Structure formats: C-alpha cells, structure tokens
Amino acid sequence: MQTSLDFIFSILILIFSVVIHEVSHGYAAYLQGDNTARFEGRLTLNPFEHLEWFGSFILPVLSYLFGGFIIGWAKPVPFNPNNLRNQRWGEAIVAIAGPLSNLLIALFFGLLIRFDALAKLGDSFVYICSMIVFLNLVLATFNMIPIPPLDGSKILFSILPYSLQDVRHFLERYGFFILIFFVFVLWQFMLPLVSLEFHLITGLMT
After folding, report:
1. What is the mean pLDDT of the chain?
2. What is the 3-state secondary structure (H, E, C) of 2-33?
3. Which pTM value belongs to this model?
C-alpha cells in the first residue's frame, strides 16, 4: 500500500515539476522577445497543455518498474531562436531556465526541511517535501546531460566550436536512442550524485 502511495505521489510531483520546467523555458524565451510559447498557449500551469504520453506517463512507469526510480519529461515548449534578443546566448538561457526552476524548487523545500520549518506539520509532510526535493534534483541533473533533446545539449551546442559541428549532427541524429540507453543503463550511476545533492541541501540521507 505504501509503495503504491509513493508511486502516486511521485507521479503527481513529477507532473507538477515538469510543467514548471517547461513554462520556465517559455517565459525565458518570452522575456527575450519571443512570443511563440504565448501564442501556442504554453505559458500556463495547466498540465494538459504540456504532458505527452511517452515522456510524461509511459517512461515514468517503465523507469519505476525496471530501474526503481522515476524520470520523465513533458512536450518541449516551442520557441523561435531568431526572435531572441540575445542571439549569442539566447538559446542557452532558454535551455538552462528549465533545470534552474527545478533546482529552485528543490532549494525552497530542501531548506524548509534543513531548518526544521516543517517540524510541526509532522513526518508525513516532511516526507512528501523530501520527495519534491529529490525528484526536482533528478529532473535538474537529468536535463543537464548533453544529449538531445535534453537542455544540456542546447547549452553544449551554444559553446561548441564550429570545427566540432559533426558532433552536434551525430547527437541530433541519434540522440533519442542514446538517451533511452542512458536512462535504462547509465542513469543508475548518476543517482549517487543526486543523493549527494539531496544531502547537501536537506541534511538528510536518501
């Protein structure tokens, strides 16, 4: 019963977190002069505007069943890089806005835990906040991996010299397959990093 409740809470937290992640991308583009996300109705916290079947539902279930963790994503928020005021770093700014939003969520709830601001609310509430911190750290860390279509790839491409553009073309062509391999084979080696981040913020062990 507890495992089922944990899974349900984890899915709800994941949905809440990926929606904020995508809206942050949209607002970062909007603040730089691009209205694409606004015109397409993506500057909203309504989850139905952001979720997709594979990244938001199928992948979280598969990763939980076969890997013991939950990971996922929502539909990427569209933007037109040609509209961005900062043509040099605009795409990187839009890309980093998503992971940064998850990190800020993790810091907010994590510091509440660390300074015992939730003590009077009971262990159950602290536990839920711990799940919020951990899952948002997972999302922030996961999305900084430089594999398309993750945000880390856009940051990488913005600093990649022209002489290495073949690397970009390779990653863009095979990125989805590399990413699936990474999620189910290599991600387990990244979890200790997330656990360390969790401990540094909350003072707790995962």
Report:
1. 90
2. HHHHHHHHHHHHHHHHHHHHHHHHHHHHHHCC
3. 0.91
